[in-house]
Automatic annotation (TrEMBL):
Its EC number is 1.1.1.219, 1.1.1.234. One of its GO terms (biological process) is flavonoid biosynthetic process. Transmembrane segments: none annotated. Residues 4-149 form the NAD-dependent epimerase/dehydratase domain. It holds the Pfam family Epimerase. It is an enzyme of class 1 (oxidoreductase). The keyword Secreted does not apply. Belongs to the NAD(P)-dependent epimerase/dehydratase family. Dihydroflavonol-4-reductase subfamily. It comes from the Eukaryota. This is Flavanone 4-reductase. One of its GO terms (molecular function) is dihydroflavanol 4-reductase activity.
Length: 234
């Protein structure tokens, strides 16, 4: 990830016409700090995931978390050193309708949670923070256009515990004639470890148009069903 980020930013500098780059990072570049899980941690842009901690703990998705963190740090440092405005955005799980024929990125996790909720999937999604794809796109545009934008911006509209997410998902799946998932009971009762604070983004005047877990999961399901990736029972 780091090499790809540097190559892209070098190309922007070489072009001579690019003033600002909005670099898409991930909430996972801010979440994995040593945390005992005793109480929910409110995360803002000052938090950085520790790649060393990820490599030591090897939690689900650890290589993705470490890679995203290192790439974002390198991108911001490159911008500072080369006179290029680099603004990073850290979306949470992105849901809603998607264009391609396959479930990728966050949508893949949504699908696996509904159809094959292995323990590692559920554990990975304990960071149950969500943003609608349309809001995520609008946030990218704002950070590109607003001259006040600088540094990092978390982007997340809502959050829920695994149990709350399961209730929402189960009710929606039943309404779409899809069997609900069966989770490991121990994982089902896990608490939220992190809450995303996106005040910095909202201070630029940004407002989320979709702010409910229910609506984000609903639109994701509808898109998965439309593309034949989530099978209904009739």
């Amino acid at each position: 990830m780091t090499a790809a980020a540097i190559n892209l930013l070098k190309a922007c500098c070489d072009a001579g016409t690019v003033k600002r780059v909005v670099f898409t990072s991930s909430m996972f570049a801010a979440l994995q700090v040593p945390h005992e899980g005793i109480s929910c941690l409110s995360v803002d842009e000052s938090f950085w995931t520790s790649p060393e901690y990820c490599r030591e703990q090897r939690m689900p998705g650890w290589s993705y978390m470490a890679g995203k963190t290192e790439a974002e740090k390198v991108a911001l440092e490159f911008g500072n050193e080369n006179g290029l405005e680099v603004v990073s955005i850290l979306p949470s799980f992105v849901g809603g309708p998607f264009v391609g024929p396959h479930a990728v990125s966050s949508v893949y996790l949504f699908l696996k949670f509904m159809t094959d909720p292995q323990d590692w999937i559920v554990d990975f999604m304990r960071a149950s923070c969500y943003v609608h794809v349309d809001d995520c796109a609008r946030a990218h545009i704002l950070l590109m256009e607003d001259h006040r934008a600088h540094g990092r911006y978390l982007c997340s509209a809502c959050d829920s515990s695994i149990a709350e997410t399961l209730n929402v998902v189960s009710d929606l799946l039943k309404s779409f004639n899809v069997p609900p998932p069966k989770l490991n009971k121990e994982l089902e009762n896990t608490e939220i470890l992190y809450k995303i604070n996106s005040t910095k983004l909202q201070d630029l005047g940004f407002a989320y148009n979709v702010g409910s877990v229910h609506e984000i999961w609903k639109e994701t399901m509808m898109s998965l069903i439309e593309k034949g990736l989530l099978k209904q029972k009739f």
